[in-house]
Amino acid sequence: MIKNLKLIIAGLVSALLVFQIFHFAEHFIQLWMWFVGFRNMPFMSPWATEIVWVLGEWMVPGEEDYHRIFKLGVELLHLIGNMLFLLGIIGLRLLIKSKYVTWALWFQAFHVFEHVMLFFTAYYIHQAIGMSTLFGYFQPYGTDVFDEVALTNYRVWWHFIANLIPTVLVCMSFKRKKKDS
Amino acid sequence: MKSLALAFIALTLIGCGAPKSADTPKPSVAIINEAHGYADNYTPDKLETLKSTGKPFAVFVGADWCPGCKRLTKEIIANQIVLPKDTAILTANFDNELALRREYGVAVKHTGIFFDANGEHLYTKGGVVFADFMTHLAKN
Question: Is the ipTM reported for this complex over the cut 0.85?
Answer without folding.
Answer: no
